[in-house]
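Summary for the steering committee. The consortium agreed at its last meeting that each partner would contribute one worked example illustrating the joint modelling workflow. Our contribution is presented below. We chose a case with several input lines so that the handling of multiple components could be demonstrated. No manual editing was applied between input and output; the record is shown as generated.
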Amino acid sequence: MRFAILQFPASNCDQDCLHAARLSGATARFVWHKETSLGDVDAVIVPGGFSYGDYLRCGAIARFSPVMQAVKRFADNGGMVLGICNGFQILCEAGLLPGALIRNRDLTFHCEQVFLKTVNAATPFTADLPNNRPSMMPIAHGEGCYFADAETLIELQARGQILWQYCDALGSVNESANPNGSVLNIAGIANAQFNVAGLMPHPDRAAETVLGSEDGRRVFEGMIAGLKRNRQAA
Amino acid sequence: MHEPAITPELVAKHNLTPDEYQRVLEILGREPSYTELGIFSVMWSEHCSYKNTRPVLKTFPTKGDNILVGAGEENAGIIDIGDGIAIAFKIESHNHPSAVEPFQGAATGVGGIIRDIFTMGARPVAALNSLRFGELSNPEVRRLFSGVVGGIAHYGNCFGIPTVAGEVCFDKSYEGNPLVNAFALGVLRHDQITRGAAHGIGNPVFYVGPATGRDGLAGAAFASQDLTEESAEKQRGAVQVGDPFMEKLVCEACLELLATGCVAGMQDMGAAGLTCSTCETAARAGTGIEIELDKVPQRAPNMSSYEIMLSESQERMLIVVHKGREEEVKAVFDKWDLPWAEIGVVTNTERMVVRHGGRIVVDVPAKKLADEAPIYQRESREAAYMQGVRSFRLDGIADSVDPLGDLKKILADHTVASKNWVYGQYDHRVRNGSIVCPGSDAAVIRIKADSLPITQAEYAARKSGATDGSEVPPPLADKYVAFTVDCNGGYVYLDPYEGGKAAVTEACRNLACSGAVPVGSTDNLNFGNPHNPEIFWQLKESVRGVADACRALNAPVTGGNVSLYNQRGALGAIDPTPTVAVVGIIEAFEHITTQWFKEAGDAVILLGNPVDTVDPLQGLGGSVCLKALHRIKNGLPPRVDLEAAQILHTTLIGLIREGVVKSAHDCSDGGLAVALAESGFSGQVARETYRFLGATIDLSTFQTPTPEGSAVRLDGLLFGETQNRVVISVAAVDAGRVVKQAQRMGVPASVIGVVGGETLTLRTRSGEFTAPLTTLHEGWWNSIARAMA
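What follows is the complete predicted structure of the assembly.
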């Protein structure tokens, strides 16, 4: 499977995503933000970083870039897109995912390993994650507090679009396990069609045991397996 | 434009002495222009010229078989780590700017050191920092502390460099003058080393990066004076403003530019901005350089030549390009949407010539300006306080009666306590290389293929469309780099020579605990005003200590930085603080070792002497114990036997390579009891999820009377900071063999207990003491956050 990793000015997890995608068995290459076409790809990763210096608002400028117009078309045609950290922020700003990410509740940047509960395992992004324990991946963000209005939250819950929630080591979703104040402890969501997802934690930094966790690789592997299923069905 | 006349007052205002000014007149053969006066002032400041310290710096060991670029040659030293791969690293201070404007001061400190690394052609892959502040009970100190940490986090996180290690110490001596020393490390291939030299007569000189503004005017000169209330206020304009986003673009563009093969030389505009970069590149190449200020991008209208030449606006680079290849260079700048300008040319005149508004405003011999600053042999005299330090004894200081209560207090001391409040704000995992994150003795990163800058061949292939970038580069042989920064300023104050030795030795011991062998070091000499003979004595003596230890422990100095005048009015000078960062290599992944206990039933072994019985203070001189429990900062600090240190480190690494060592943690601040407690509770799994694995320790056999007849004190045994000690854990079945092997090498070793349970139990002649790890951990983990809340 061929993955495109977007490169914005000051993307800084682009190499991490390329590395993790390759470890997961994908073919991967970078696509520069000035490109108007993604080329021949099966999935798109919008990596973390501080695109365009996060001037104005995280992800607010990136969404106007030529490559994001191509990503929108790709997603509208059912293409698989995953946004990680700043990439999640960009997808929200671009309207590909509902809600927004605002400053962490304590106004402080947090870098730490967190536990994640898979809320909906019936998506390619989550299908390969362990089902008998929480997943573990690091976060590294200052603006990761997920927010959406009550109506949107009800819809997200009803349709199973909440994919991950912050939890503790035992899988309990509680206040102290929430590192940034996200509503409902939401760490990641999908769109209503389940072909676009975003999350604040970094699966790209949890793809090898030497880095403390392999759980993140299973997100990429799940995507690859899903793409293969789609291809067989077609 | 009207320029002020050169008067003795104006010369004095520029911190040039009458003798120095005389020298300027001799070099020029005429009176300098106002801009030239400014240029001499910054280039001959301590920050740029090391005029007060050069003779002392010459005593550092700087040679080594692996050193590809040595101390003083370039912007950073470079060391070969095998297979054609090399690492570039350096530490640099941003103390004065941080005292005045903590957030921007610290942020631009990080930016400056990152630029020093990619200027060498290396990709920056890791950062660390060494910070010192007054006590957190003071609200102004809290403001400085949170500003500095926020600034480092902002710059490093946005740039995308993992800040993986560091140290933070708190002492009243740093109250008015905090220390911010930032270190960065980069990776490159041998053939990618880039020189900051203006080679090739006729080659065009490019400026790239944001426009030049009035910010940071003469920052180097500011850094070379005492801080005063007045100067702090007035010099706020000398603090630059950083833009990490711009730095990231400049870095990526420069690494790409180097892969085009168009670059003849490159230098960042750091201290003394355009001035320093032009005259140094010309001086290094033995050429001249001529630039036109009207072509320099400017942020403010009507900037004078003085202002443009002395501005320290950030994220700017000077690039010398092979003639005829200008278009390729412009294409790369445009790809990254960077402002650039062609501002001059390399000449054969050996002079630095600057034109502005059709006039020549500067015409000076480049080499004389860059390399021939006056050198001073400063007077030095042993500090008067040393008499009191030498005669200090423990008589009258009550021994510990509640050792676990004391341990709790020491663990919660801000210098000893966990720095999670700090490193949690730093992205320490970006770049997928952080194998050992903050919280163990030394950070360990792995170097992988994508750590390296793109090669000329790769670039050409991509450019020609021969590849779409999806092929996987051949993997590198495993490379693991460990590094740490250490210094106990209190030790250095109480005994500059021994304190200097201790800084290097502790850093090397930390590396040994992680499984690494040192390959080189970089130091940052932070001191008060060198015109004070007692302060110069501190400097000279501690440099002698650092140099001796670097020699003994095979950690040659590849560069560094000097920061003097760290004192503020009535608050006086800081503790002398030569911070030392040492970099080491770990041969194989299996050798990477962390400090926390791994398995119940393992044996706990102490390598080294429990107490230095020759030391009348039993390792308590200058200790955290005396400071935290008795409010005393006095007494000769523990001695460092360098030969014993080298044997300890070699023995420990030997044991680690055999695969028997499960954990290793050095004894430093707070002594054996702190090392044991930390071995029990410092392994963090994830947010609010800790590993508690305690131990039962028997120290009763170590309390036999010393040869002099005085009994070993309980506080000396538990909290004494006797040097050259490491706590390791090994499988019970290996314990006897490990002890024998260490002893055979000449390292004192004994089994002191067994790992298990969730308590720390200490058996001593004075009784048995037990505390749950959770209660010990609580204060250690939270005390800084609590002080900052």
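The longest strand of chain A covers residues 110-118. The longest helix of chain A spans residues 215-233.
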